[in-house]
Amino acid sequence: MSLTALIAGCDDPESDDTQFRPYNCPTWQCGFNSAEVNGRSIRELNLDGEANGEGVRIVGFVAPQGLLGNFSLAAEGDALVARNLAGQVLRGAQLVGAIILVKKDGLLELPVPITVLGYEEIDSWAEGAAKVPTYALLYPDLSSLLGVRNVCNGDLLDTLATAATVIGGETYDLATKTVQPNKPRWLTLACAGSAAAKLRLMNYGPHADFDGAGHPSTVAQRQATIKMITADYCGTGQSYTVNGTAVQWENYGGTVVSPGSHGDTEAIWTAAGAVCLDATRVPDAAVQCSLPSCSSYDGPLGEWSTYVPD
Question: Pairing with 129, which of 66, 120, 167, 177 sits 20 to 30 Å away (CA)?
Answer without folding.
Answer: 177
